[in-house]
Amino acid sequence: MIRSVILGSGSALPGAAVTNAQLAERVDTSDAWIVERTGIRQRHLAGENDTTSSLATTAAQRALAAAGVDAAAIDLIVLATATPDQTFPATATMVQNNLGCNGGIAFDVAAVCSGFLYALGTADSMLRTGMARRALVIGAETFSRILDWEDRTTCVLFGDGAGAIVLEAQDGAGNDRGVITTKLHADGAHNELLYVDGGPSTTGTVGKLRMRGPEVFRHAVVNLASVLKETLASSGHTADDIDWVVPHQANSRILDATARKLGLPAEKIIVTVDQHANTSAASVPLAFDTAMRDGRIKQSDLVMFEAMGGGFTWGASLVRI
Ligand code: COA
Q1: What are phi and psi of 242, to 5 degrees?
Q2: β-pair type (76-80, 105-109)
Q3: pLDDT, tens digit, 9 for 90 and up, residues 105-149
Q4: Rg of the Cα atoms in the chain
Q5: C-beta 147 within 6 A of ligand 1
Q6: Are 225 and 258 in contact (CB under 8 A)?
Q7: Does pTM surpass 0.85?
Q8: 152: left (phi over 0), alpha (psi -120 to 50) or beta
Q9: Are residues 75 and 134 in the same domain?
Q10: Which domain does 213 fall in, by range?
Q11: Which atom of ligand 1 is nearest to the CA of 310?
């Protein structure tokens, strides 16, 4: 049986951190409000020369270095983003060209904040069916470009960044390292709760993010608890078996509420929302890379990735590191 094993991870953040206090100089908000409602303390915002592809390329290079894999060995790039450099071609093809590994498969997936889970599930399926041997799975965003900086209910919540992992198809006999199971869902009935009010085939513009935060919050807790239970049940594991949960970093209150529903202790949840805010598709791999590099997540740990985003889309993936 072939398994998709994580060989290494990397991440990238643009520029210096922008604190809540700095944001409050140009937006009608306060550090106290943002921290109390979201747990966010700072975020990184893309500078003039930063793009989704430049952040993704840096994260990919760091992941390749951590994995000890040469870019030439990569034959699949799946990049999750809602903020591509251009409407087309796919940002993944730009990363491929920057890395100098042209010729393999490269494409983007659009599932907003669940994008990394969708990309991971897609890459894992392709590796297990033999379409490719070594993949880069990337989540990268420059959400600051689609924020309405006049809308304080949304602009304080998001940040920019990228995270990447290298996956390799390995013979799974003798150990259970690699992706064990991934569960993905979508429910297109809730477009009006979280969307961008523009696009190539409608307005011909890029548009700005619109969100009804409290409604999204309620759906997030229900959907995440449900997919986490489904993923555990399908793999035959219990919440007690999990060493670490690496959740989408939207709001610390969503993380707390989901953990409580599953009976997971707070010490097992990797939290970076205070440092990065919500970086959409980048948030799960950014949080994962943070915990890999500071030594919390180690080889053979059982890790649950989970995310929920616009669409709605949501998913979870159980992985033995
Ligand atoms: N600074 C100060 N005050 C703000 C503010 C800001 N940045 N944004 C909103 N407010 C005010 C509102 O105007 C409102 O004031 P009012 O009561 O006088 O009308 C008050 O704060 C409460 O607003 P509300 O929207 O009810 O707050 P909330 O406790 O629901 O928190 C969110 C708002 C957005 C933080 C919260 O709903 C949330 O995190 N939702 C999930 C969003 C999310 O994670 N989305 C991504 C999923 S991928």
Answers
A1: -75, 130
A2: parallel
A3: 999 999 999 999 999 999 999 999 999 999 999 999 999 999 999
A4: 18
A5: no
A6: yes
A7: yes
A8: alpha
A9: yes
A10: 178-320
A11: 48
